[in-house]
Structure formats: C-alpha cells, structure tokens
C-alpha cells in the first residue's frame, strides 16, 4: 500500500494481483488497474510492493509472479502499463526499492538474490555477486551515494556498491554485520538473566544522515570515467 499523488488517494495491492486506487476522503474506489495479459488484473500473483514516483506520476509494482511493472498513474479511468519486466528474478520477489537519484530499481528475493534494474529503460543492470543465505526482507538506497543496504530473515545486513560506482567494486559485498538481541534465560524458565545474544530478522530499514565517514567512503566509489549521460557523483 502507498499514498497516491499529493497524498489524496490510497493505492492498494492485494493477494489476487489487483491494484486499486481509493479516495482518501471517502474511501470510494476511483480506479482499478486491469490488463488483458494478466487476465484482467495488474499482476498474476500477489502484489508484494508498490512505489509511487510522484515527480513522474508513475507507479512501480512487484509481484510474486516474478514481474516488475511500471504504470502511468495519471490516467483517471485506470492504469496504463508502460513497461513490464517478466522473470525479473529466479524466485519470488519479497521487497522492492527505488532510487530517483540513481535511476535504479532494486529487488530482493526469497532465494537471497538481489537484482538491479535501470528505471527508465527497464534494463537489467546487474545482480549482487553473493547471495544472502536467507530471504531478503529489506532494501534501502543510501542516496545520494551509490550504495545499497540489504537485510535478510536471519538478521544479516550487507552493503553493496551499485552503479555508478567503479566497475571493479560494483555488486561486491563490502561490509556485513548481524542484528542481535540479548536472550534472557527467562524464556527457558530461568530467573531473567541475560544468556548471550541471538540473531533477529530485520523487518524494516530506513537510512538517514550523511556522516563524514560515509561521505569519504562514497568518494572512493566514484566512477573512474563518467558513463554516457552521467557525471561524477557529488558528495554534499
């Protein structure tokens, strides 16, 4: 679920593959995204993620049918399918994130893989070279830096350089750590004393702040040469 343009509507995706838009004031249905190639629905599987790109009036959706779709959200009588990426992963998609600064879409999957896509052309950019050992639960871009943060169901978090980082560093895991919480022996009938730590699944991620260390590290990831249509990433 996400808010529509200017926060006036609510966009929902359901377990049957439908995407619907509701008026936030009275909750009446305004439109339903239906496409013939999906048997009158937006997707053939569960809708797993919705992202509104408000500056372009576009909606990005992902589904358990392993597809990623980009819709024209400005159409009043229903969505217009602009681009669809079929077989976007080797397994079901669990999470989707978009970076307007980098123009990238990232998808995390049940097999632990992470795929990167060019937003404008729906072109596959690459995939992270190592798999998480458990399903990917969260993704976050560290905008404006070319770094992706991922987490999985076993509490592992990893940092990955992505385009336009230097080619030799792209998609390589550069740092990893584990989210742990103290375990009380009260869980096993004890008196409540701490008894070590256990990994805990990460279920939400959000990145804020621009520390000096992160800026310095991001500067080392800059491209050796600007790619066509892209300049050097500026650390601010």
UniProtKB/TrEMBL annotation:
Signal peptide interval: none
Stretches assigned to coiled coil: none
UniProt key word NADP: no
Annotated WD repeat ranges: 86-120
GO cellular component, one term: nucleolus
A Gene Ontology biological process term: ribosomal large subunit assembly
Domain of life assignment: Eukaryota
UniProt KW keywords: Nucleus, Repeat, WD repeat
Subcellular location: Nucleus
Protein name in UniProt: Uncharacterized protein
């Amino acid at each position: 679920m996400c808010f529509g343009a200017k926060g006036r509507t609510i966009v929902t995706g359901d377990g049957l593959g439908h995407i619907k838009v509701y008026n936030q004031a009275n909750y009446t249905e305004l439109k339903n995204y239906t496409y013939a190639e999906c048997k009158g629905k937006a997707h053939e599987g569960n809708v797993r993620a919705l992202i509104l790109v408000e500056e372009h009036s576009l909606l990005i959706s992902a589904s358990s049918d392993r597809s990623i779709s980009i819709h024209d959200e400005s159409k009043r009588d229903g969505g217009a399918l602009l681009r669809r990426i079929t077989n976007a992963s080797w397994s079901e998609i669990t999470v989707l994130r978009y970076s307007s600064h980098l123009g990238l879409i990232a998808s995390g999957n049940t097999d632990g893989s992470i795929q990167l896509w060019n937003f404008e052309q729906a072109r596959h950019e690459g995939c992270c070279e190592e798999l998480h050992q458990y399903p990917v639960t969260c993704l976050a871009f560290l905008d404006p830096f070319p770094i992706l943060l991922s987490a999985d169901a076993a509490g592992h978090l990893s940092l990955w350089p992505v385009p336009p980082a230097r080619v030799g560093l792209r998609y390589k895991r550069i740092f990893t750590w584990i989210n742990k919480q103290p375990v009380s022996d009260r869980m096993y009938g004890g008196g409540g004393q701490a008894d070590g730590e256990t990994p805990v699944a990460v279920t939400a991620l959000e990145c804020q702040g621009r520390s000096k260390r992160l800026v310095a590290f991001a500067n080392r990831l800059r491209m050796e040469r600007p790619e066509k249509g892209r300049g050097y990433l500026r650390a601010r």
